[in-house]
């Protein structure tokens, strides 16, 4: 993870003292480069306990109101076990799964976006005084953090958003990202809405993780992806995984890929440039609520709006940033009214930005195949089905 | 704006929106420090004449006398702002708009002859020009204060016409429709309440009225898939904002 290593000096600043000491101690006991090694782990509790007692803030998918949502873990016992999910366009349900399994349920409604790119954030405040006014940028606390159980599609999404904010020169995002370690989980099962295989982002984690887990029959395979990952490991050395365990993990991941029923057409980026006038846009707009859910759950969507707040006595002002969406009418408001008045134009903006224009703008697709926009669209509009219909000229 | 003179007026309503103003407990001292309250019967019996810089109007027009009174208030006000679902869309009392008034009066009142009202309950904007609308049943005190603060600073108030779903997602609320199959008017309802219902696992009741271009037909189709019959679907739209055009039309499609 070159970006993390390059920021090593910065990272330290964000580490709590205890964590810094522990990390150094761990590094000393593992001086050699262990990247690429595969180890075996019985269950995740021991590692989580180590990290929590070393002072890391651990954020993991936890049970919240009938869904799995990344939130702060205080006790390894909070990590859900034996749950699976049933997802389809416009529907999500958690159900009992195999009782011994930790990672059967895949992506939930919220990615890691709301942590790295918070939905609402004060940028600065200003106070009026006799001489004029004084502006204070908002200071942010971001403790040394571990994202635990990041799915491969979300790993790709983090990398893509990171690229957006790198180009935008957003130091707050860079600081949060630099002080965050990532423990990925390869998927041994896909939901009905997943199509990461066709987007080449999963179900195996590629680059960008510090550690990666794969759940196998009798435990977890653990792969080291970076020096930071090595430093995160328990000083009590874990046994190496056997060849059979490594093969089992690979087989499960391949089976997950093979089970995916949705696939994005490979030439969708080019095809969408040819169908700007397709009647399909109006057709989908007749079903679309322009409710903004798809953009909010999409782990790569980054758009924001800023608003100013002023106090009643006029002495204080604040500038706030918050998530916005190309589905909101104010999004394209220029003098005289919104540029994209019609719902069809707004749906087209969303789809063409994700699947086509993102390539020109940022050098990759804006879609990782996580399927969230399909599941969490209240009326179940299916991005893949729409893209396929458009690609076929329907 | 120098200390603006503010007036608050009541028409056919429950007083809940005016109470929201009084409910700004923490900010009340700042508020009375920043504005001059010239007319607000719920807060003070001292009344001063116009002209007023901002008139907040609660309630709908249901009598001939009120139809005249709102004209006078408009003439005496620089900015006229409707507060709440009654003033903005006719309120819950607009439910009577689709029935024969005589039958309703007969059914409800022991002495129907004493009731002298208009056929319909109508929003203020059907009678006079309205400069801004604060939605809600009741309005959000946050939006009320925001409107006053913006007027004082000479900036645009932050009243975005985005759906309740946007509030859900910013708040991190798990969608009740997708995760639990609970019918929710959020996708066609304007944000602003502070995510009150979905946050506690309930579907949105539509207190803030329809968003611009609300696609109610598409939402109703989803309600049908969730198992609601046409009567139940119509009832969803016949609520605090039953008089708002998008909801009137959609409810009627299911009769
Ligand atoms: S596609 Fe679905 S989630 Fe997105 S704006 Fe339309 S109705 Fe909402
Ligand atoms: S466009 Fe949809 S499937 Fe693609 S990354 Fe965004 S939410 Fe996931
Ligand atoms: S799809 Fe819309 S909300 Fe998402 S990044 Fe693109 S313009 Fe922004
Ligand atoms: S709970 Fe209702 S308001 Fe919230 S996202 Fe779901 S449909 Fe929208």
Automatic annotation (TrEMBL), chain A:
Residues 279-309, 358-386 form the 4Fe-4S ferredoxin-type domain. GO terms for molecular function: iron-sulfur cluster binding; metal ion binding. Keywords: Iron, Iron-sulfur, Metal-binding. The keyword Iron applies. InterPro entries: 4Fe4S_Fe-S-bd (IPR017896), 4Fe4S_Fe_S_CS (IPR017900), Helical_ferredxn (IPR009051). The keyword Metal-binding applies. This is 4Fe-4S dicluster domain-containing protein. It comes from Aliiruegeria lutimaris.
TrEMBL record, chain B:
The keyword Disulfide bond does not apply. Keywords: 3Fe-4S, Cell membrane, Iron, Iron-sulfur, Membrane, Metal-binding, Oxidoreductase. The keyword Repeat does not apply. Residues 14-150 form the NADH:ubiquinone oxidoreductase-like 20kDa subunit domain. InterPro entries: Hydrogenase_assoc-protein, NADH_UbQ_OxRdtase-like_20kDa, NiFe_Hase_small_N_sf. Gene3D superfamilies: NADH:ubiquinone oxidoreductase-like, 20kDa subunit. GO terms for molecular function: 3 iron, 4 sulfur cluster binding; metal ion binding; oxidoreductase activity. It comes from the Bacteria. Its cofactor is [3Fe-4S] cluster. This is Coenzyme F420-reducing hydrogenase, gamma subunit. It comes from Aliiruegeria lutimaris.
